[in-house]
Amino acid sequence: MQPEPQNHERRSFLKKTLAVCCGGAAVLAPVGAGVAVFLDPLRRKAEALRAIRVTTLDALPDDGVPRKFPVLANRTDAWNKFTQVPIGAVFLRRVAGGKIDAFNVACPHAGCYVDFMPEQEHFLCPCHNSTFAVNGRVNDPHSPSPRGLDTLVVEIRNKKEVWVKFQNFLPGQADKVPVA
Amino acid sequence: MKALLAWLDERTGWRGLGNKFLYHSIPGGAKWRHAWGTALLFAFVVQVITGFFLWTSYSPSAQTAWESVHYIQDEMTGGWLLRGIHHYTAQAFVVLLAAHLFQMVLYGLYRAPREVCFWLLLALPPLAIGMSATGWLLPYDQRGFWASRVPINIAGITPVIGPEIQKLAIGGNEFGHHTLTRFFAFHAGWLPPMLATVLLLHLYLLRRGGKAATDATSEAQKTTYWPDQALRDAALCLGVMLVVLALILVPKLAGLQSAFGVHLGAPADPSEPYSAARPEWFMLFLFQFLKYFPGGTEIWGAMIIPTVIGMFFALMPFLAKTRAGQKFNVAFLLALAAGWGALTYLAVSEDRRDAVYQQGVEDAEWEAGRIKVLARSPAGVPNSGALTLLRNDPLTQGPKLFAKHCASCHRYDGHDGTGKIPKDPQTASDLDGFATRDWIEGFLDPVRIDTTNYFGGTKFKDGKMSRFVKKDIAGYTLAQQAKLKQIIIALSAEAQLKSQLAVEQKEIADVRAGRRWITELGCTDCHAYRKPDPDASAPDLTGYASRRWLLGIIQDPTHPNYYGKKNDRMPAFGASQILSARERELIADWLRSDWYQPPK
């Protein structure tokens, strides 16, 4: 008995669809679980912004010269928890009126750590030679950095403790956007 | 789009290749048994996919392997499912491999021209065992660690070069970082391409052999691969995946497990005996088989006999040239399967009767649960690895130390801390709930003070304290009994036990009153309390059973603050250097029920 050609065609189409569906369903779970794990970091948020005690006024001479201080905090790295480890660094500088300027040491261009050059009295990024004035602004129109050094909020507590609200910002763009 | 595809076809001929693949003819039409090979390939592909994604989060070192696997399984989205699929598909691969091998022998599919195709298939079991043996170790939990030592030690009995093979495999003399990096490199880098090559060549030759057969078949019996056979292949693959998913999901859904996810034991600890060590179920037969080989002859069971069997398999296609030969092959295969089944059954039933093994499994399960709790505690996993958490956990170590050092005299709820009854008779107090209100109440009870749970087994049985309880307290008026009750509350509060802090806060008035009565009712005639007393002849009640007090008495019970010269047989665990400072702390914390508990 020969099946009618049209009927045969329909059955063949059904089989093809079914084969593709079965095959797709079979790989769905492994691929899905894998992609979920791979995308897991997107769900992890940065630590909430908090003030960290960085140094005391005694360690920061009143001469307008920026000095570098490490920032210590508790840190979670996947499964490990660390207490009081360096999570970054800041430049602190006393300015007129008892105020303190704080800059994140990461260059806003590509994230390299900038250095202060005492002779030239400016900050220099060792990677692409961005330079910044002592007040943190871009001081050369040809500088690769899209913005000045990122300022951070400073608080003086108990008369002499310097606390900084430490934060990192996305490099490479003109606006200062916190890493979330 | 069409033009682009045509352009590509002109340069690559992909259409021809695809058509050749999809529309090649199958002798005798589409059959379910032709789908085994595809299912085997499918299982392999699933391992490659899930393996890659596990790789993106796995970290092979002695201090990070368990930790990263735990993190994948318990913290990352979908991690339990990913690890579960990888775990069970590995076993599905072995089952499918056996099924495929079975049908090749059963239907005589290895006959000319498929001999080479069959030989390639024979190369797969050793590769699969290599994948398993390297994979077991990677989570670096107790089970994997102890199961992996066996294949390594078997490799070590290879004549002449055995010790060198062993050293190379574990990357030194002891298991450690390099064992993991090496096993991982083989597991993820070397063995998969080998397996893929052999498997693909095998499947290619299987098809080629099929083509030879089709040419001889009549036109009417021919079918093309697409879509008839493809549908069967896809359905079988889906079936395999559904079984794998069922294995992952059912234990939790049936209430046998508290959370989704496959077993992850406590972190590997070479210093901790592990009596639950067993290989994966499909290798249990070898484990059982090796029991029958007396020392020095294991090489027969582990190498010579398996090699001979493998070589015999290689000769099967030639034997099958005669009808009797084919029958013999099938009979041999069935006998082998029966032997596998019998040995597996023996291994399982012996384990079922083995109390040591059962206890080992129970302990391992307990530790596996405990380390999960510790790893998720706010303190988290330190740099030194999760094992440190377990080694520093009073709840884990306290009972073991108590059983070893204290239970020859003391008891803990009637046992040695771990649940066993020691063979030495009890001669000192039962320390379960030591210094809780209930415990002190029992101690000050004229009926109970002389039982072995308190002073009954010691020389204090006839001492001043015991006489005081049996005479004076026994004759207390109601008013005195009320004061005694407050003394118990106050004395128990000296211990600062975590379990009683809340209620002591509430009953602070009773605590304060009790402190007064301690002096008034005559405790301080012998005991010092809250001020130095050079004439005290009994243990100081200041901070009684607090951590500091307990550490002091364990350090040296003959110190004037404790039993002084009256001490009855209790060793000075610190002063005589029987226990380290850390061990003494673990015992003290455990007796005070002071360990990490997750918030409810």
What does this structure look like?
- The complex is a heterodimer of chains A (180) and B (600).
- Chain A has two domains: 5-42; 51-165, Rieske [2Fe-2S] iron-sulphur domain (Rieske Iron-sulfur Protein).
- Helix content of chain A is 19%, strand content 31%.
- Chain A contains one helix and nine strands.
- Chain A has one helix at residues 5-39, and strands at 51-56, 67-77, 80-94, 100-104, 115-117, 122-124, 131-133, 153-157, 161-165.
- In chain A, the strands form three sheets. Chain A has a three-stranded antiparallel sheet, with no helix packed on it. A three-stranded antiparallel sheet of chain A has the order 2-3-4, with no helix packed on it. A three-stranded antiparallel sheet of chain A has the order 5-6-7, with no helix packed on it.
- Chain A is elongated.
- The mean pLDDT of chain A is 90.
- By secondary structure, chain B is mainly α.
- Among the domains of chain B are: 35-197 and 238-279 and 354-363, Cytochrome Bc1 Complex, Chain C, CATH 1.20.810; 394-591, no CATH class.
- Chain B has helices at 2-12, 14-22, 35-55, 65-74, 79-106, 115-137, 142-156, 162-170, 177-215, 225-253, 284-289, 298-319, 323-353, 355-375, 386-391, 394-405, 437-443, 464-472, 478-494, 501-506, 508-520, 547-555, 581-591, and strands at residues 25-26, 223-224.
- The two termini of chain B are 60 Å apart.
- The relative contact order of chain B is 0.07.
- The A-B interface holds A 12, 15-16, 18-23, 25-27, 29-40, 43, 76, 78-82 and B 42, 45-46, 49-50, 52-54, 56-57, 64, 67-68, 70-72, 75-79, 81-82, 85, 89, 226-228, 230-231, 233-235, 237-238, 240-241, 244-245, 375, 379-383.
Shape of chain B: elongated
Overall, the morphology of chain A is: elongated
Protein chain pair with the most extensive contact, residues per chain: A-B, 31 and 45 residues
Count up the helices of chain A.
Answer: 1
What is the level 1 CATH name of the largest domain in chain A?
A: Mainly Beta
- Fraction of helical residues of chain B: 55-70%
Question: Span between N and C termini of chain A?
Answer: 70 Å
- As a percent range, the share of strand residues of chain B is under 5%
Number of strands of chain B: 2
CATH topology of the domain at 35-197 and 238-279 and 354-363 in chain B: Cytochrome Bc1 Complex, Chain C
Query: What is the mean pLDDT of chain B?
Result: 91
CATH topology of the largest domain in chain A: Rieske Iron-sulfur Protein
Indicate the CATH architecture of the largest domain in chain A: 3-layer Sandwich
Give the class of chain A from helix and strand content and strand pairing: alpha+beta
- Please give the CATH class of the domain at 35-197 and 238-279 and 354-363 in chain B: Mainly Alpha
Q: Could you describe the largest sheet of chain A, including whether it forms a barrel?
A: 3 strands, antiparallel
Major β-sheet strand ordering of chain B: 1-2
Q: Please tell me how large the radius of gyration of chain B is.
A: 34 Å
